[in-house]
Amino acid sequence: MMRILSILFVLILGISCTEKVEESKPLIEIYQLNKRIASYEGEAVIFTDEMTKMDPQFTERYKDVLRTTEDGNWTPNGAFKAIQSDLQQTPLISDDEIIGFDFTTNQLLLNKNACSYFGMTKKSKIIIKIHN
Fold this sequence. Notes:
Elements: H1 2-18, E1 27-32, E2 43-44, H2 49-54, H3 56-62, E3 67-68, E4 74-75, E5 98-102, E6 107-110, H4 112-120, E7 126-131
Antiparallel strand pairs: 1-7, 2-3, 3-4, 5-6
């Protein structure tokens, strides 16, 4: 009886190990933000009236971006959370323009066409979305 159970166990194990299930490739798209998003890290810089009078464009542009660090310095925006409505409607880089990701060097590999987008938008923030 034990011998029969052992043989059945080996057969079931062998069948289950040989069955391969195709997993779908995740869709990866890179989107550009449609607005600046304040960071949840650090404290927001509070501009004085004097600063605003001296350079109103600077204070308006960076009011939600600059954060105060622990040592009192200013730093550009840290980590932030974005939702679907914060993104442009169409992706900046589509899935077919992404070649892959090198986990050794932590580099995103893009085709030549996708690389040109970064040259045109070098000061833009982007979001990488991975759809499973």
